[in-house]
Design goal:
The complex is a heterodimer. Chain A is mainly α. Chain A contains 22 helices and five strands. In chain A, the strands form two sheets. A three-stranded antiparallel beta sheet of chain A has the order 2-1-3. In chain A, strands 4-5 form a two-stranded antiparallel sheet. In chain A, α5 runs antiparallel to α6, α11 packs antiparallel against α12 and α15 runs antiparallel to α19. Chain A starts with a helix and ends in a 5-residue tail after the last helix. Chain B has two domains: 216 residues, Rossmann fold; 61 residues, 2-Layer Sandwich (Alpha-Beta Plaits). Helices cover 38% and strands 28% of the residues of chain B. Chain B contains eleven helices and 14 strands. In chain B, the strands form three sheets. Chain B has a six-stranded mixed beta sheet, sandwiched between helices. Chain B is elongated, with a radius of gyration of 25 Å. The chains are: A mainly alpha, B alpha/beta. At the A-B interface, α1 and α16 of A face α2, β6 and α3 of B. The complex binds adenosine-5'-diphosphate and magnesium ion.
């Protein structure tokens, strides 16, 4: 059997295609150098102009900063109120109340964050830009998730109808306009000034909204009462609210100390360190607020989502906007960061196509990019080769010469599959090493540790080298399954061309199905959607947002998890193996 | 009695609704060249595929050197080398690499052995050319080389002369005779052309529509033919001579010019000559007319196939 495997392997390496592969590897490497332009990551660090430092301190002294703290408190208080409310009315149907409260919460967060932004921004200069940036880019996600929650609670798959209590007048609002109302309930930002008239109209509606009752089209009977149990509420309060408040107090003290340490003299052009120090303090203050924000929102959000199946939720809100997996993943990340008193920017993100893992691109990002492209080519090549090794050899007659050797059919098949897999292994490894060295010289070898969120539930730090190894293994599993599939198809279809066509069709059919019927519950069972286990390392969901790369990596659909996919793969491999070996054993080789 | 190398027992192949091979039983002995003769579609290839384990066996079994191909596939097939239908190999590899590939599947085949086989089939000069650039004759020879690499006891060739020119056919014939008799390799060779078979086979089996019709060793066949042979007498008065012979022996006489053709054995020549001379006829010549093997086989097939019904 080992002899047969070696002989098959030797045959593979004698194929002329090997040169094409090597050439393609070089081409992809060169192409990637030009194609590879991911966004640089936002550091979440707020950069403060020297002049502003005094301003910030003045805010502190004159109670402006404490005003912002009051805001933080009021936000936390409303969370607390919400919690209390549920404690007291646990049995009452609370959907309506919850809606109002969440809306208020939303308003409060907005107001609070706006305040923070204004503290940082100076009336003139680029501070405004920064504040705006923070508001639109950094804070928006957390606000958006609240908007999502709100919209989820009211039926979003149908237009919302507001009925005037007095006049019985109806106003029909689409999802879009509701979202716009929700985002304009805070004071208009730079963005909203652009189409102010439009927004003002909506704003009026929303401020008048209390005149109307919400007439929810009762399409979703599945909307259920949300019940928060005691433990959940306690945890929220003690673990996050109290801890967060303590941390904020510490930073406030530090800012105070800092001010004393510089002797009230803000002119520190010469001291880069001092500037960095104050930057860090304020960033930390700001980010701690944000972390708390996200944790509480995510917790409430997921708690509500618990009452629905993933499928119901996807139906309620559309798959792109709510993916439980992603929400859990982000919550786990936030909790880990909060527990370790660290910020997002302390870590590199797991590999993904569209952004860099560090602030600057590095060899790992580059390697991931190249390998994903290259694995595509390896798969196609191996699929074609797999087809040629059974159907192809049967067509040209060489399989007969092979089958009259002292090896059972089972061994012939195994050697061929293993030889193909070994070839894929060698080439992937080769590509990885070459890319690693090339990438290192182009972008540098340095990388921060990576914060992996395994299966959305377990967060851990991992060195990029180790993660690369994991990536390599998952990639091999994926390629290996494709190879097995190609062998199955090539065993069933006697014609070589037919086998290649069907295999490649399977490959693309899944990608196309994913693009067009993404909300369908069935496609999560498609084996090819479960092949990429690396997406469960915390990086996969990013790629899912980019439809082009759906071809390369599949999204995490509702109900999917690492175990789900693993079982799916094991089942797929078993079924394919049984089919392949049975058919091949009883096949008359014509 | 020499060893049985191949035993085929009640071998049957049933495709969905037709019997391609019907209850075939025969043996091939050591050093024997066994001809498997039958028209196209007779079931030769199907039989060979079952013997080599390429096709599943519906009923019966095949033993190679005593090992059942069904139960002891690896041991049985180890003793066998062959070409089934076309001698196709990997076109992107050289002849040498192809041989090397097959050699690597067995233990203990050295490069020397490969060289030896290459020399045996006379491909020394072109062995490093790509297989796709070989002529059909060269492919056939490489095919035989591939089949001989592991010194099998039984060589199976399915229509090896298909598409070869007369020169090539003669070469293969000589070659096979040589290895069968010098190296004690049994050869099972199939063909639909009798002329090829009669010149090299020790035993010939005729198969038609899946059934074994006749199995004879070449000497037996020859004897059988002598019984049906004719003697030609060239005389001055053929009509008279014919009447004389008919009256005395009651044989079917044919006349052709001055020739009287008598279906009889050589042993009868003296008495017929005596009869003619005593009647004052002049004899200008006596010839033995042999009926060709081909005619005999065609006769057999014509005769038998008429009475065989395949369900
Ligand atoms: N795979 C198959 N399915 C059905 N019938 C077949 C198959 N292969 C061969 N046959 C039939 O079996 C008979 C014997 O074919 P074959 O062994 O190739 O004949 P030969 O080699 O003597 O010319 C033919 O009638 C042929 O049509
Ligand atoms: Mg044939």
């Amino acid at each position: 059997m080992i002899r047969l495997f070696k002989a098959e392997l030797r045959k593979i390496f004698l194929r002329p295609g090997i040169f094409v592969m090597t050439a393609l590897l070089a081409v992809i490497l060169a192409l990637s150098y030009f194609l590879y332009q991911p966004m640089t990551r936002n550091t979440s660090e707020i950069s403060i102009d020297e002049n502003q430092v005094s301003e910030i301190y003045d805010y502190f002294k004159n109670g402006n900063m404490s005003y912002s703290k009051a805001d933080a408190l009021s936000y936390m208080t409303s969370t607390n109120n919400l919690i209390e409310n549920y404690r007291n009315n646990n049995t009452v149907s609370n959907v309506e109340t919850l809606k109002t409260q969440v809306n208020t919460l939303n308003d409060n967060i907005y107001a609070f964050l706006d305040r923070v932004g204004r503290v940082i921004s100076s009336p003139t200069g680029e501070g405004k830009e920064i504040a705006y940036k923070i508001l639109t880019e950094t804070l928006k996600p957390s606000v958006d998730s609240l908007v999502n929650l709100f919209s989820t609670l009211i039926d979003t798959s149908n237009p919302l109808i507001l009925v005037n209590k007095n006049t019985a007048e109806n106003i029909t609002l689409s999802l879009n306009s509701i979202n716009r109302i929700l985002t304009t309930t805070s004071e208009p930002t730079q963005e909203t000034y652009k189409n102010m008239q439009d927004n003002l109209n909506l704003y009026n509606i929303s401020t008048d909204a209390n005149k109307y009752t919400l007439n929810i089209t009762p399409d979703i009977e599945s909307i259920v009462d949300v019940k928060f149990d005691e433990e959940f509420l306690n945890t929220l309060q003690s673990d996050y609210y109290n801890v967060g408040m303590e941390r904020l107090a510490v930073v406030e003290q530090q800012i105070d100390d800092f001010y004393v340490s510089i002797g009230g003299n803000y002119e520190f052009e010469n001291s880069v360190e001092k500037k960095a120090e104050i930057n860090e303090l304020i960033s930390f203050y700001y980010n701690t607020c944000r972390q708390l924000n996200e944790i509480v929102i995510s917790k409430v959000y997921l708690k509500i989502a618990e009452s629905y199946s993933d499928y119901e939720f996807a139906q309620l809100y559309g798959l792109e906007d709510f993916i439980r997996y992603e929400s859990e993943q982000s919550l786990t990340r936030q909790e880990y960061l909060f527990d370790h008193n660290k910020m997002e920017y302390d870590y590199a993100v797991p590999f993904n196509f569209t952004s860099t893992s560090n602030f600057e691109t590095n060899t790992y990002d580059f390697m991931y990019f190249v390998l994903e492209l290259f694995s595509f080519i390896i798969i196609i090549y191996c699929v074609v080769m797999g087809s040629s090794m059974i159907a192809g050899e049967q067509n040209n007659g060489t399989l007969k010469l092979l089958a009259i050797r002292p090896y059972k059919r089972r061994k012939i098949m195994t050697s061929k599959i293993l030889a193909t897999m070994f070839f894929a292994f060698v080439f992937t490894l080769l590509a990885m090493i070459i890319t690693f060295i090339a990438g290192g010289f182009m972008f540098g070898f340095e990388s921060a540790p990576i914060l992996c969120i395994f299966n959305a539930t377990t967060a851990f730090e991992i060195s990029p080298i180790l993660l690369t190894l994991i990536y390599f293994l998952t990639l091999l599993l994926k390629i290996g399954t494709y190879i097995l599939l190609a062998f199955t198809i090539s065993t069933i279809f006697r014609s070589y061309v037919g086998a290649v066509t069907v295999s490649i069709f399977c490959f693309f059919a899944t990608a196309i199905l994913n693009l067009f019927v993404s909300s369908n519950n069935i496609i999560k069972y498609l084996p090819l959607n479960n092949l990429d286990l690396f997406k469960y390392m915390g990086g996969g969901s990013f790629t899912a947002n980019s439809s082009i790369f759906n071809i390369f990596s599949s999204p995490i659909l509702p109900d999917m998890s690492f175990v789900f996919s693993l079982i799916n793969i094991v089942l797929t491999i078993s079924i394919l193996a049984v089919i392949t070996y049975t058919v091949f054993k009883n096949r008359d080789i014509a | 009695m020499p060893n049985k190398i191949l035993e085929v027992k009640n071998l049957t192949k049933i495709y969905k609704n037709r019997i391609a091979v019907d209850d075939l039983t025969f043996d091939v002995y050591e050093g024997e060249i066994f001809g498997f003769l039958g028209p196209n579609g007779a079931g030769k290839s199907t039989t060979i595929k079952m013997i080599t384990g390429l096709a599943t066996i519906s009923r019966g079994d095949v033993y190679i050197c005593g090992y059942s191909i069904k139960k002891n596939f690896e041991l049985a097939i180890r003793q066998l080398g062959g070409i089934i239908e076309n001698p196709e190999m990997y076109s992107y590899m050289s002849g040498w690499d192809n041989l090397k590939f097959f050699a690597n599947l067995y233990t203990g085949i050295t490069d020397e052995r490969i060289h030896e086989v290459v020399k045996l089939v006379g491909l020394e000069n072109r062995i490093h050319d790509k297989f796709k650039n070989y002529s059909l004759g060269m492919k056939q020879r490489l095919g035989i080389a591939q089949a001989l690499l592991h010194s099998p006891k039984l060589l199976i060739l399915d229509e090896p002369t298909n598409g070869l020119d007369p020169n090539g056919i003669q070469e293969i014939r000589r070659f096979l005779k040589n290895i069968a008799h010098t190296q004690k390799i049994s050869v099972l060779i199939s063909s639909h052309i009798l002329a090829e078979m009669e010149q090299m086979c020790d035993t010939i089996a005729i198969i038609d529509r899946g059934k074994l019709i006749e199995i004879k060793n070449i000497d037996q066949i020859r004897k059988g033919i002598m019984g049906g042979q004719k003697i030609c007498f060239k005389v001055d008065y053929p009509n008279f001579a014919g009447k004389l012979i008919y009256n005395k022996y009651k044989l079917d006489i044919e006349l052709a010019g001055n020739n009287v053709i008598v279906p009889c054995e050589e042993a009868m020549i003296p008495s017929i000559v005596q009869l003619l001379i005593s009647n004052r006829l002049s004899i200008f010549g006596i010839n033995t007319l042999t009926k060709s093997l081909e005619e005999v086989f065609l006769d057999i097939i014509k005769q038998r196939s008429g009475s065989i019904t395949i369900t």
